[in-house]
Write a structure and sequence with these properties.
The chain is an all-alpha fold. It has helices at about 5-30, 40-55, 70-95, 110-130, 135, 145-160, 165-190, 215-235, 240-260, 260-280, 285-310, 320-325, 330-350, 360-385, 395-400, 405-420, 425-430, 435-450, 460-490, 500-510, 525-550, and strands at about 210, 215. A two-stranded antiparallel ribbon has the order 1-2. Helix 9 (about 240-260) packs across helix 11.
Length: about 550
């Protein structure tokens, strides 16, 4: 072999060795973010711009303040999704960046198959529905008919294939959500600098807030945005970005508190429990977790300061929100969190980002699981076994009846009855997308008017809503979609720490949706984050495949 060939072979071997070393180090560090290529292809740029527009413009897009907000968000989502499709197709037709066209474009994953099944069931359900046009358009409910389900699938398909992770994309969401939450804080004290709620009837102004609208919708939004801020704070690489994301987390938790909704707190506890288990993997993550918790707890007390300045002229706060803002015992919680943060910092200085024993993370997971099982067990016991014990103010949380959850219990109980009493067609494929209102009004309209003075058009539980309107097949497909994405994303967390962002947002939205309803104001976010998760999963898999080839 010539000397030139020997040098070339040695150089090649050295490069391969270096590649193997880098891969090993990345695995040992427990999840470095998958590096985005320095130059994005044109279709990747379009996808990233679409996501940025959904994060930075969609939450504030209005044509007539809050009076048209549902239609405004629907139109914005549909139009921008079609615009993305147009530009993606244009890159192919014009042959732009041909060498950068994505691999495995038509590879069908389990979540893809679940989503396809869900849309097919929605189509069959709409065709067979006795409510015809309403099932296709959603005009009888919250505009969430088959048409919008198809648009969600189109968004998922495009984003999952073309999005490439960049921190700036999620930072845009952290910034915009902080602005939205700051406006909510002002509205809590009847300060309306942008004249958003001034034209709403005075007796209804307490139920509408910031650029999102109804307080329940806003709590759902906060359960998507707050996880992004918290996750970014935990995985931030330096002190300045950590402080910045802690600030955004503080503003977002303030938004969650003034949203004044139990569904929001349920979502918050759910995604923070998942984050706690994840952070138990290393001393550094535990320190970041406690630091972020301390920052959020301290931020809540800023509401009390503003209340003092405004002479306590604020909208009424429910029990949990009132306690967090006004009870002085919360200062002890803040002090305890601060002390734990200092101790965690000392551990971080000693052990850094080295993995803690796997047993600690397993134990944390078991504790979270047992706590969740205990709460569910207590709820089931007092709802279906012991219906007589006086629970006082806890009855509105722990006992399911017609009054439970601001009359959500009425809709839930009637919803289950309607599901299994309407024949096999409805059991399998439901009554048609977004037709829950038509079904329940056909049987219980007068009863609802007599009891509540109004009628329900949704189950106030997205999962139950899908069960009644798309049947057991649609419900199962939707559940499979969420669980499959979460399972795949969790498995890849050790390779890519940024996965925790999408995991927490999906968990946050899904948890609060147990008590909330699907609407174009916030529902596009769950399907967008499912798409983002799938895109990031594919990026991890491609990175691992390339590393294997180099080895």
């Amino acid at each position: 072999m010539s000397k030139k060939k020997q040098n070339k072979a040695a150089a090649s071997q050295s490069a391969n060795t270096a590649a193997r070393t880098v891969t090993k180090k990345e695995k040992e560090k427990g999840g470095e973010a998958v590096k985005t290529p320095l130059r994005l292809s044109m279709h990747e740029k379009f996808a990233d711009l679409f996501v940025i527009s959904m994060f930075a413009i969609f939450p504030i897009y209005m044509t007539n303040k809050l009076f048209n907000v549902r239609k405004d968000r629907l139109h914005y989502f549909v139009v921008t999704t079609f615009v993305l499709l147009f530009f993606i197709l244009a890159t192919y037709i014009c042959g732009i960046d041909k060498e950068r066209w994505p691999k495995n474009l038509f590879k069908i994953s389990v979540p893809d198959g679940a989503f396809i099944s869900f849309v097919v069931v929605c189509l069959i359900s709409a065709i067979l529905s006795e409510y015809g046009e309403k099932a296709f358009t959603g005009s009888g409910g919250r505009d969430s008919g088959f048409y919008l389900m198809a648009m969600y699938f189109l968004c998922y398909l495009l984003v999952s294939r073309y999005f490439r992770y960049r921190e700036a994309v999620f930072a845009a969401f952290a910034i915009m959500s902080s602005i939205v939450c700051f406006i909510a804080l002002l509205h809590e004290f009847w300060i309306d600098p942008f004249a958003i709620i001034v034209d709403i009837k005075e007796e209804q102004q307490k139920d509408f807030i910031t650029t999102i609208g109804n307080i329940n919708m806003f709590s759902g939004f906060a359960c998507v945005s707050l996880p992004v801020c918290v996750a970014l704070a935990v995985i931030a690489k330096d002190k300045i970005t950590t402080a910045f994301y802690c600030l955004t987390a503080g503003l977002n938790i303030i938004g969650l508190v003034v949203a004044n909704s139990l569904s929001g707190y349920f979502g918050f506890v759910a995604f923070m429990a998942i984050l706690f288990v994840y952070c138990c993997g290393s001393a550094h993550r535990i320190f970041k977790f406690l630091l972020t918790c301390t920052a959020m707890a301290a931020s809540i007390k800023l509401i009390r300061l503003l209340a003092y300045i405004c002479h306590d002229n604020f909208k009424n706060l429910e029990d949990i929100s009132y306690f967090l803002v006004y009870d002085n015992r919360v200062f002890y919680i803040i002090g305890g969190l601060a002390l734990l943060t200092v101790l965690a910092y000392l551990l971080d200085r000693k052990f850094g980002d080295n993995h803690s024993p796997k047993a600690i993370q397993i134990l944390a997971g078991l504790l979270v699981g047992l706590a969740a099982a205990a709460v569910l067990g207590v709820f089931i016991y007092f709802s279906f076994i012991d219906k007589e014990t006086d629970l006082g103010k806890f009855s509105k949380i722990l006992r399911l009846n017609d009054q439970w959850g601001t009359h959500r219990g009425y809709a839930w109980i009637r919803g289950f009855e309607l599901f299994h009493t309407k024949g096999w067609k409805n059991i399998l494929v439901g009554s048609g997308p977004d037709t829950f209102g038509q079904v329940i009004k056909a049987v219980y309209r007068q009863d609802m008017l007599d009891r509540h003075g109004s009628v329900f058009d949704t189950a106030h539980n997205e999962f139950l809503n899908y069960l009644v309107t798309t049947g057991i097949l649609g419900f199962a497909s939707y559940i499979l979609l969420i669980l499959a994405v979460l399972f795949r994303a969790i498995r890849r967390c050790k390779f890519d720490s940024t996965m925790i962002i999408v995991i927490l947002s999906i968990v946050g939205y899904a948890s609060q949706s147990i008590f909330n309803l699907a609407t174009p104001i916030i529902t596009p976010f769950i399907f967008l984050f499912l798409a983002l998760a799938e895109a990031m999963i594919r990026a991890v898999d491609e990175s691992k495949a390339e590393a294997a080839v180099k080895e």
